[in-house]
């Protein structure tokens, strides 16, 4: 399995079918993949649409929250269930373009080797949203970047590619998806922003209101600032100690006879009585 595509969805019956079909069209034949859709307590026809899709798309897995838990916890549920080491995320509204996934994945593979980058996040430079949403997002990203120093122009972008293990080591909380660049940097990982496509929402409506987003953002920002200031990333090295032959190695081998131990039995006796050296080797 090369990549797991995680899609959180709540009341996206009008978008999820075309989005899954697009992901399959982009990745089929290019890599081995799975799609994990997390139905976050939808009350429309999302569950029925996903059940129909599973009949024709064997790579599709569906997780269901009994009640709405929010985008961050939906993403985390999907990542925990993912079978691949690399995870890509897309918003369930269809505004992220799956055609960007192969490019972001290739960038992650190269940057991980060269610069310890564990997260590649999209930058919606040409957002297809209302003017009010674009202004609010720009102001929020500016304030967030100035306070947290995450050096990310669009931390709320839904299309991301990252390493599963690195994500699961991060602290989990409501709305954490807005702070992933800062959380990855706090853990000592590099983060890259890459310009991506963005499309208008064709069906349904946004689940975030301006006032609720602002209120939650202020509280979460204060919590993130505390978390970063209280964090330390240790640099760990291991010193391997390899001593010379121990006195037990120089003991003469007893003659084999009645009541004497065989070499194999003696080796087992030594292994039980001698402590292991640092690094897993025995003296």
What would your notes on this structure say?
Mean pLDDT is 82; it is low at 253-283. Helices cover 39% and strands 15% of the residues. It is α/β, with parallel strands linked by helices and 283 residues long. It starts with a strand and ends in a 10-residue tail after the last helix. The protein has 9 helices and 7 strands. Helix 2 (46-56) links the parallel strand 2 (33-40) and strand 3. It is globular, with a radius of gyration of 26 Å.
Our Rg estimate from Cα atoms comes to: 26 Å
Which shape, going by the Cα principal axes?
globular
| Percent in helix | 25-40%
Mean pLDDT: 82
Order of helices and strands: EHEHEHEHEHEHHEHH
Distance between the termini: 41 Å
**Number of alpha- plus pi-helical segments:** 9
Structural class of the secondary elements? alpha/beta
Strand content range: 5-15%
Structure described in brief:
By secondary structure, the protein is an alpha/beta fold. Helices cover 39% and strands 15% of the residues.
Set down the secondary structure blueprint.
Blueprint: E1 3-9, H1 16-27, E2 33-40, H2 46-56, E3 60-65, H3 71-81, E4 86-89, H4 101-115, E5 117-123, H5 131-148, E6 160-163, H6 164-168, H7 180-186, E7 190-195, H8 210-229, H9 263-273
Parallel strand pairs: 1-2, 1-4, 2-3, 5-7
Antiparallel strand pairs: 4-6, 5-6
Helix pairs in contact: 5-8
């Amino acid at each position: 399995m090369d990549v797991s595509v995680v899609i959180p969805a709540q009341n996206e019956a009008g978008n999820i079918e075309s989005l899954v079909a697009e992901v399959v069209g982009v990745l089929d034949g290019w890599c081995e993949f799975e799609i994990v859709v997390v139905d976050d307590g939808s009350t429309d026809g999302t569950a029925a649409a996903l059940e129909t899709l599973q009949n024709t798309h064997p790579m599709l897995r569906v997780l269901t929250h009994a009640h709405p838990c929010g985008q961050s916890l939906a993403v985390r549920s999907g990542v925990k269930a993912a079978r691949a080491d690399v995870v890509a995320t897309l918003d369930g509204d269809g505004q992220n373009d799956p055609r960007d996934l192969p490019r972001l994945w290739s960038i992650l593979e190269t940057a991980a080797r060269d610069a310890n980058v564990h997260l590649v996040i999209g930058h919606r430079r040409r957002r297809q949203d209302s003017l009010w949403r674009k202004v609010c997002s720009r102001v929020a990203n500016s304030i967030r970047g100035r306070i947290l120093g995450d050096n990310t122009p669009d931390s709320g972008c839904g299309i991301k590619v990252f390493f599963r293990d690195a994500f699961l080591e991060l602290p989990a909380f409501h709305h954490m998806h807005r702070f992933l660049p800062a959380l990855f940097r706090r853990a000592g990982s590099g983060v890259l922003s890459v310009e991506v496509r963005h499309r208008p929402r064709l069906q349904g409506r946004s689940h975030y209101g301006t006032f609720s987003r602002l209120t939650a953002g202020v509280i979460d920002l204060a919590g993130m600032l505390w978390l970063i200031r209280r964090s330390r990333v240790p640099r760990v090295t291991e010193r391997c100690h390899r001593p010379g032959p121990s006195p037990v190695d120089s003991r003469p081998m007893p003659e084999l006879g009645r009541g004497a131990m065989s070499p194999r039995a003696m080796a087992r006796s030594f292994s039980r009585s001698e402590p292991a050296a640092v690094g897993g080797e025995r003296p």
